[in-house]
């Protein structure tokens, strides 16, 4: 191929490539413009749409700025009436003159009942005090040293055993005397075998008594502690009973005395009820609005869905448009590239433009 | 008109022994008023007693004192040793007396009570620590020095060995307690089965003092001065029990007790007594064995100032009772008792006997100033003695008539060469006429002696019958004899008396 032909081919190719470049730029501009338009439309389609819920209680309007509640005239009248009742009840509850009136009436009633003086229960208190005193004594005794108690018990046991042991000893002494053996002393037994047996038996009895004394002392100590505890309970119970009876009497007085305050409290409670009832209609309307909100949410969901579809559709068309533009650009570009490729590449390897197109198109 | 001669034949005169208690006119003619240095021989005749044969040749340790106690040690190994006590020493041996007194041991009296027990011999005396000899130790030693000794050795004056123990009583400051040793250990007085018994609360009359002990008939006999207590079951001392008590009878000293095997004899303040063996009764009968010489015996008892000595010799069938301070011995023949329950008794005045001990071999040891002797021969040492016999007053059946003694015809057996004085007297005068006769000398049989040309013929036992013509008269007649015994035995076989009964007096 000749140079001129190459040049013409080259020029044509360049022109094609340039045209493709320009085409691509135009396509982009159109895509941008088109998307913006679609977006704007979508925005407009998805904006909040106010709604209103209406019933016999009144109407509840929901706007972008907030919620407007309007009671029906009947409800308004009821609300006004309840508010007025609450005001009156509170007024009576907080009126000192009304409290005095109640107290006077109660005093009349208390006087008719013949209330009991709490000091009449002093006898019970005294009995309890005595029980406590006895408990202290027994507790002191229980806290006595065990050794001394053991000695006392041991002495008592030995005092019971001693007479019989003495009789046995005297009988043995007489028997030995009759046998002429009273003066016998042996290394094996000390005295006679009978004396040894008796001494041994008496020693065993003493040991048994000592053991019993220890056991008895401990048992007595525990018993005394138990009785002391019972006495303490009795003592404290008596005092508590006095306290309880006195407190009950006082409580009765207090209850009666508090009745007056209670009456006033009832007024206040009544006022509280009125006040609470006053806001019930309005609360019902608020609830009604909540019910309408659900429907509004449904509508909005549909609205948003449609807007989405609209956008998607427009975007799809835009994409098709953009796609065709890109195709056109590509076509032109390919022609140009082909031309350039034939100029700079292929069998004419010695051409100075060989490889350049490859490098440009790669 | 010629009167018929009346005769009294005293066959075995005096064979009933001395009787000083019955009436002299009614007394049995077979008694003797006097029977000095006599015994009742096996034929029932009055016979001369034996003397004592001196065994000791060297009595240097004894000095001039007499042997007051004799005992013979013997053990299970057959070892024997003769012990004697005198001159405040413990002596041993017979021919040569050896002083066995322990060194640094002081003896103040010779009134030892000696017993053999369990291969040892024990010496007890009040106020002295007991002494012990055994063949193993080969020396007399204080009890505290004995190997294994325990406790404080009791310094009692009375000891017996019975039921496997030693029993000791009669202390200086305690007259009512008896101590017994441990079983088979006479040197152990504490621990084991040793013990004591205080009988001060048992005396039947409130108070007495122990003077003697005896083991008899499996019973413990405790003698007081005027009481006797009997315990049974003493083989187990801890459980022995009072069996019997006797009041009013006791003993003067511990030495006045002797066991004859069939009886327990003791010298009380009123004579020689016996317990007897009771089978049918629980009480213990007390027999009076010296009834025929009661007053004489009581006088001797009262006059005695030293402890008596009593010994039984079954070989000689007699019990000798020695009153040492009076040099008097009473010889009681125990072959049998007379009708009144008494023993036949003779006496040995002037005796030098101070101690008696019969050994198991039958030898009767005698303690004298000559040392240790044996009852043997018919000489007291080297000296003779006089045998006397006097009959009771003989009345020939009628004390109211005059008796004219005509003839006496005594028959003497033995007495070879002895000079015999035959006596007769009248009416309690105490004056006697005497007829002296020297008895024939009896030949001595010699065997195993070569004597050629020497003819000697033994006449056997000499029997002499003396015919005596008597003089004088009286309502009652006493006949007798006195003979010097100098080495030969002599017995009075028979005494025939002829008398004419005269007028009434």
Q: Can you describe this structure?
A:
- The complex is a heterodimer of chains A (362) and B (505).
- Chain A is mainly alpha-helical and 362 residues long.
- Chain A is built from eight helices and four strands.
- In chain A, strands 1-2-3 form a three-stranded antiparallel β-sheet.
- In chain A, α1 (3-45) packs antiparallel against α7 (280-344), α3 packs across α6 (193-278) and α4 crosses α6 (193-278).
- The longest helix of chain A is centred in the middle third of the chain and has 86 residues, at 193-278.
- The two termini of chain A are 24 Å apart.
- Mean pLDDT of chain A is 81; it is low at 346-351.
- With 505 residues, chain B is an all-beta fold.
- In chain B, strands 1, 3, 4, 34, 37, 38, 39 and 41 form an eight-stranded antiparallel β-sheet that branches. A five-stranded antiparallel β-sheet of chain B has the order 2-33-40-35-36, with no helix packed on it. Chain B has a four-stranded antiparallel β-sheet with strand order 5-32-31-30, with no helix packed on it.
- In chain B, a hairpin with a 4-residue loop joins β12 and β13 (139-142).
- The longest helix of chain B is centred in the middle third of the chain and has 10 residues, at 294-303.
- The radius of gyration of chain B is 26 Å and the shape is elongated.
- The two termini of chain B are 19 Å apart.
- The A-B interface holds A 177-189, 192-193 and B 176-177, 182, 190-202, 229, 231, 237-242.
- β4 (184-186) of chain A pairs antiparallel with β17 of chain B.
């Amino acid at each position: 191929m000749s140079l001129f032909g190459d040049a013409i081919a080259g020029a044509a190719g360049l022109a094609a490539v340039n045209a493709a470049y320009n085409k691509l730029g135009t396509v982009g501009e159109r895509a941008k413009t088109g998307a913006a338009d679609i977006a704007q439309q979508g925005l407009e389609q998805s904006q909040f749409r106010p709604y209103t819920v209406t019933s016999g209680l009144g109407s509840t309007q929901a706007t972008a700025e907030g919620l407007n509640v309007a009671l029906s005239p009947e409800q308004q009248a009821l609300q006004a009436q309840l508010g007025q009742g609450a005001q009156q009840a509170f007024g009576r509850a907080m009126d000192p003159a009304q409290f005095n009136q109640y107290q006077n009436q109660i005093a009349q009633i208390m006087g008719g009942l013949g209330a009991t003086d709490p000091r009449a229960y002093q006898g019970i208190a005294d009995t309890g005090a005595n029980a406590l005193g006895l408990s202290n004594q027994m507790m002191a005794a229980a806290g006595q040293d065990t050794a001394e108690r053991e000695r006392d018990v041991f002495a008592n046991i030995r005092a019971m055993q001693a007479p019989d042991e003495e009789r046995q000893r005297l009988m043995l002494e007489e028997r030995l005397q009759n046998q002429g053996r009273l003066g016998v002393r042996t290394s094996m037994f000390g005295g006679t075998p009978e004396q040894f047996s008796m001494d041994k038996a008496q020693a065993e009895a003493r040991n048994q008594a000592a053991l019993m004394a220890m056991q008895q002392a401990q048992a007595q100590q525990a018993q005394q502690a138990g009785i002391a505890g019972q006495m303490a309970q009795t003592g404290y119970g008596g005092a508590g009973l006095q306290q309880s009876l006195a407190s009950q009497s006082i409580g009765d007085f207090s209850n009666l005395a508090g009745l007056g305050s209670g009456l006033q409290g009832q007024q206040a409670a009544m006022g509280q009820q009125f006040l609470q009832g006053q806001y019930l209609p309005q609360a019902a309307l608020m609830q009604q609005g909540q019910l309408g909100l659900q429907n509004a949410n449904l509508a909005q969901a549909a609205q948003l869905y449609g807007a989405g579809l609209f956008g998607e559709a427009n975007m799809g068309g835009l994409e098709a448009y953009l796609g065709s533009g890109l195709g056109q650009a590509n076509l032109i570009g390919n022609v140009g590239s082909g031309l350039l490729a034939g100029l700079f590449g292929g069998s004419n390897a010695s051409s100075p433009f060989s490889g350049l197109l490859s490098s440009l198109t790669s | 008109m010629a009167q018929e001669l009346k005769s009294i034949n005293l066959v075995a005169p005096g064979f009933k022994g001395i009787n000083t208690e019955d009436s002299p006119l009614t007394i049995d003619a077979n008694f003797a008023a006097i029977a000095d240095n006599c015994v009742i021989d096996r034929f029932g005749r009055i016979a001369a007693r034996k003397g004592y044969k001196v065994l000791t040749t060297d009595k240097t340790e004894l000095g001039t004192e007499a042997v007051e106690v004799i005992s013979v040690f013997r053990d299970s190994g057959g070892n024997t040793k003769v012990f004697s006590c005198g001159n405040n020493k413990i002596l041993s041996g017979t021919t040569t007396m050896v002083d066995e007194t322990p060194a640094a041991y002081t003896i103040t009296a010779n009134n030892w009570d000696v017993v053999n027990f369990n291969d040892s011999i024990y010496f007890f005396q009040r106020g002295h620590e007991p002494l012990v000899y055994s063949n193993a130790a080969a020396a007399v030693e204080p009890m505290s020095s004995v190997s294994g000794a325990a406790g404080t050795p009791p310094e009692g004056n009375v000891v017996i060995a019975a039921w496997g123990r030693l029993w000791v009583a009669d202390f200086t400051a305690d007259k009512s307690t008896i101590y017994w040793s441990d079983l088979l250990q006479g040197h152990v007085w504490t621990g084991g089965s040793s013990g004591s018994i205080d009988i001060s609360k048992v005396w039947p009359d409130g108070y007495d003092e122990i003077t003697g002990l005896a083991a008899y008939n499996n019973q413990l006999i405790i003698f007081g001065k005027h009481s006797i207590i009997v315990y049974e079951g003493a083989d187990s001392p801890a459980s022995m029990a009072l069996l019997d008590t006797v009041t009013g009878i006791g003993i003067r000293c511990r030495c006045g007790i002797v066991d004859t095997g069939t009886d327990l004899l003791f010298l009380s303040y009123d004579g020689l007594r016996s317990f007897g063996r009771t089978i049918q009764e629980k009480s213990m009968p007390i027999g009076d064995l010296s009834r025929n010489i009661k007053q004489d015996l009581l006088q001797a008892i009262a006059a005695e100032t030293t402890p008596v000595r009593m010994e039984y010799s079954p070989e000689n069938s007699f019990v000798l009772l020695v009153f040492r301070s009076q040099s008097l011995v009473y010889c009681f023949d125990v072959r049998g008792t007379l009708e009144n329950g008494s023993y036949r008794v003779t006496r040995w005045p002037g005796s030098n006997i101070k101690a008696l001990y019969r050994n198991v071999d039958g030898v009767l040891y005698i303690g004298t100033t000559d040392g240790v002797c044996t009852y043997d021969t018919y000489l007291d040492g080297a000296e003779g003695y006089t045998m006397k016999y006097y009959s009771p007053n003989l009345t020939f059946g009628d004390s109211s008539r005059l008796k004219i003694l005509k003839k006496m015809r005594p028959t003497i057996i033995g007495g070879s060469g002895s000079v015999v004085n035959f006596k007769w007297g009248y009416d309690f005068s105490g004056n006697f006429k005497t007829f002296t006769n020297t008895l024939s000398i009896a030949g001595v049989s010699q065997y195993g002696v070569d004597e050629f040309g020497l003819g000697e013929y033994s006449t056997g036992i000499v029997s002499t019958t003396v015919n005596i013509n008597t003089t004088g008269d009286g309502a009652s007649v006493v006949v007798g004899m006195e003979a010097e015994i100098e080495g030969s035995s002599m017995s009075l076989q028979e005494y025939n008396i002829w008398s004419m009964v005269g007028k009434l007096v």
